[in-house]
Design goal:
By secondary structure, this protein is α/β, with parallel strands linked by helices. It has helices spanning about 15-25, 35-45, 60-70, 90-95, 110-135, 145-160, 175-185, 205-210, 225, 245-255, 280-285, 290-300, 315-330, 340-345, 355-365, 375-380, 400-415, 420-430, 430-440, and strands spanning about 5-10, 30-35, 50-55, 80-85, 100-105, 165-170, 195-200, 215, 220, 230-235, 255-260, 265-270, 270-275, 300-305. This is DNA-binding transcriptional response regulator, NtrC family, contains REC, AAA-type ATPase, and a Fis-type DNA-binding domains.
Length: about 450
């Protein structure tokens, strides 16, 4: 289980040792600093999850340190100020700079522990709220009582109990973020932060700095590994990581430590890694997208998310869930789907998977009406095409969008040609051997006849 790391800064040795011993007995990991200079150095070596900071110290006062740290980080860890000679002005200034609370000496040990726990809980809740505002993700666990939905929850609970890295694979929109969040919430690090990043949005040196942080003359810039300390880092589109970033991630997984860009010392790796990719395991391992040794580390606990077209039995529950969400969160009218509409949903190939279904339910709710959604409305919302897949997600990286289109395109022609690869090759203008390789890469099958 992850242990919160706390830095205690106070120039009085008796208080430092007392607070350290109490917090250690309560299961926290504690480091101490006797001066502002020691506090700066300690914080540069390792980012704390919470700081107990004395106001009056011989070299630099706590207010100055608080001001420095607030300017360096957009989301600094909670800071609890402690002092035996505080003034109203110093208390007001500390609060203005973002201090979580103010404790007076002599310290009440019961109040100290209560304040520390509440500050850590508030920091976790703040991070969760920021994640929800950023992604608007309604699902907190895989939905569906069919065999696929049940299997995803069961597999999620199984791997959650083990702290090893997890590799999630599946087409775009199948719910990898939701499953990663579910695994985090079911595991021993559930009380810690859940931090996520798409490797497709950062590249080269930017990726390394974003994930591992950087040391500068002005102080450390903490990366996501330190911001996620005690919790989970979900690394989506892991196959988009640069070669250098892959090498650094591999070293961190092998040694349990990592180094910031331009850094001198090493930081402990106190985070669970969940990686996600829209490519299949075969392509990741042999297609050159990931180093083989990094793949072996990440794929110790592999989970594949099935596409929505293979989860027809979950469609009614998923549709109802999204309709409830639109009504409760977005204030849109709640509309049920009649039997004919549900049947039409089952016929659709869903190339955009859960994301496409959510958008469809939203469009039909915006269209309004107090009556149930009909098959004709579903047909119109899908573009009126019964055989040609639609709904490619234009918000995803180009490689993933191209793969989603190629899969939908080839599925359509395989169906049209009765699975005859030779005929599909003729229609698509491809050599048959090239088409076979393409089908294998996309996990599709056709008949060798014709």
């Amino acid at each position: 289980m992850s242990t919160p790391y706390i830095l205690v800064v106070d120039d009085e040795p008796d208080i430092r040792e007392l607070v350290r011993d109490i917090l250690t007995d309560e299961g926290f990991e504690v480091n101490t600093a006797a001066s502002g200079a020691e506090a700066r150095a300690s914080r540069q070596r390792r980012r704390p999850g919470l700081i107990l900071l004395d106001i009056w110290m011989p070299d630099v006062d706590g207010i100055t340190l608080l001001r420095e740290w607030a300017a360096e980080e957009a989301e600094p860890p909670p800071v609890i100020m402690i002092s035996g000679h505080a003034t109203v002005e110093s208390a007001v200034e500390a609060t203005r700079l973002g201090a979580w609370d103010f404790l007076e000496k002599p310290l009440s040990l019961a109040k100290l522990l209560l304040t520390v726990r509440r500050a850590l809980e508030a920091a976790s809740l703040r991070h969760e709220n920021q994640r929800l505002r950023r992604y608007g993700e309604p699902l907190e666990e895989p939905v569906g009582r069919g065999s696929a939905g049940e299997a995803l929850r069961e597999e999620g609970r199984r791997v959650a109990a083990v702290e090893a890295p997890v590799l999630l694979t599946g087409e775009p929109g199948t719910g990898k973020r939701t499953l990663a969040r579910y695994i985090h919430g079911q595991g021993p690090r559930a009380a810690g932060p859940f931090v996520e990043i798409s490797a497709a949005t950062v590249g080269g040196a930017t990726a390394a700095e974003t994930i591992f942080g950087r040391e500068t003359a002005e102080g450390p810039h903490y990366g996501l590994l330190e911001r996620a300390a005690g919790g989970t880092l979900f690394l989506a589109h892991v196959d988009e990581l640069s070669a250098d970033a892959q090498a650094q991630l591999l070293a961190a997984l092998e040694t349990g430590r990592f180094r910031r860009v331009d850094g001198q010392g090493e930081q402990p790796l106190n985070v669970r890694i969940i990686a996600g990719s829209q490519l299949g395991e075969h392509d990741l391992a042999r297609g050159g997208y990931l180093r083989r040794d990094l793949y072996d580390h990440l794929a110790g606990l592999p989970l594949h998310l099935p596409p929505l077209r293979e989860r027809a039995e979950d469609l009614p529950e998923l549709t109802a869930f999204f309709a409830d969400h639109m009504a409760a969160v977005e204030g849109l009218p709640f509309r049920e789907f009649d039997v004919a509409a549900q049947n039409r949903l089952r016929q659709h190939p869903w190339p955009g998977n859960l994301r496409e279904l959510r958008n469809l339910v939203q469009r039909l709710a915006i269209a309004g009406g107090e009556t149930a959604v009909t098959a004709a409305e579903v047909e119109a919302a899908l573009g009126g095409e019964t055989n040609t897949p639609t709904g490619i997600d234009f918000d995803q990286p180009l490689r993933a969008a191209r793969e989603a289109f190629e899969r939908a395109y080839l599925e359509h022609h395989l169906k049209q040609q009765g699975g005859r690869v030779g005929e599909v090759a003729r229609v698509a203008g491809l050599e048959r051997t090239h088409l076979y390789r393409k089908l294998r890469a996309l996990g599709l099958q056709g008949s060798r006849k014709g």
